[in-house]
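Sample pair:
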Amino acid sequence: MNSQKSWIFCCFFNFLIACVFGLLMRFMYLFSLDFLNYSFLLHAHSHVAMLGWAYMIVYVLVVHFFIPKEKSLKPIYNRLFWLTEFSVIGMMIAFPIQGYALFSIMFSTLHIVLSYVFCRLVWKDSLRDKSPSQKLLLTSVLFMMLSTLGVWCLGPAVSTLGKQSAFYQIAIQFFVHFQFNGWFILAILALFLKQFQDKIDEVKFKKFYFLMIVSTLLTVCFPVRWFVEKDILSYINALGVLLQFGAFIYFYKMLKPQINHFKNTLDKTTKSVYGLALCSLFLKVGIQLLTIFSNLAQVSHQIRNFVIGFIHLTTLGIITGFLFGILLQNKMLSPNSPLLKTGVKCFISGYILTEVLLFLQGLFFFFGEGSISGYYHSILIFSILLVLGLALIMASLTTKRSVI
């Protein structure tokens, strides 16, 4: 296995473990597992999914597409990857056993420090071509660094005001917001635009880029509003989501002339994955528009099903959808493998079915209708499809010839 192929396999291994943790949590709603702590498992699931799958596979693709070949072969990239994987394995073991405690904090802190090294390398080694994708990538890296300010505030927040304080909660939300909406979304859009060989309308891109950055900065007010009773925060968030809507109108206009030619170069599996990613992206923008209405903004974080549904929309639909598309388009996953095709179908089915069920149950709660009958059994069965899909994709990686 060459190094980049083993990197990709390793990322899918992390993703599979994160999904197994998620499956165990769904299992615990129906059957008692006394040896497992639900909230510890939740921390393990979220950290491994975000830092073990999304971060690591973005690392692989950024090195592949944005770092010139002679620089990407430097030993530092390989060492940094495996050191970062060591921190992920540490979190994988420590979080389910002890939750937030000494070892899990040590490993997650190590991950942040290593991510700074990665940021430095990207700034130093990536192509200086001032292309739209390059601009988005460097901005995403800045957002990643900005997000970690939230983590460094956690220690002082706990020691001065405690875990229940608004300061502590806001620090967490600050980190999560800029990780997802700043670092991950912009990095995958940079990788996506790279697939167009940067043949896009620069004027429309500049408008998209400007609106996107301003909206990302403004919409952090949405989670802050949960802990600070200030109406001005709702108005700032409303402006942010309207600007985000404008940004994606320009995004659509910018890609429209290229989209037919682009689609014709893709096979059926890759098309369906990209389609899912784009639908999820526009759905996310639409849902965020609804938070302009204060009663909907209120329930969006009070009904847990909406929260989980929205997080999965971002992580599984948008981030993973685009990443799968890029991997397939560039033959880093073998699009002709029957195992892979079945795996992708299973994964997409599991994602769509769990999302529909989560949002449907959320609506039932919203309208005071109580639980959907057989909800926990159904969501457990649908979640098995996600795990099965990933297992099949991993199996296809072990059987296919290397094309990287």
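Residues 231-264 form the longest helix (34 residues).
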